[in-house]
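User: Fold this; tokens only.

Assistant: Input:
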Amino acid sequence: MPRLSERREDIPLLAAHFMKNYGEIRTQPFPPVVGISPEALHLLVSYSWPGNVRELENAIERGIALGVTPDIRPQDSPKALRPEKSELAEDDTHDDAFEKFQKSLFGKRLQLNRGNHAEAARGLDLHPKYFRRRCRALDVKWP
């Protein structure tokens, strides 16, 4: 059987099938899922699907479980499906927006303090160990 990335025309049908199977996941006060937004469907169809059908099933299940609207939206999809964004967008999740903000702020502080992590942390009123750990997690480096 060919890989899912070679059968892109099957993705909307499989997504509908998984939505039917997992439709009971969402509970009150959120409305039941009735569809997928065109933007989210575009993400599903354009993704390479290295995990094949099982990965698609997990993406749909996640979209149903985490969404708050009647349609699965792009921000309800796993990060792997979403393209990288260089700036904040209106569909960024809180975590995405906070990480982008922190990465920018920490990078500017390191630049201002010529790479001195302790001074940069002090300027932000943060513990130096926390600052270093977050810089590693966010891949913030000073040239």
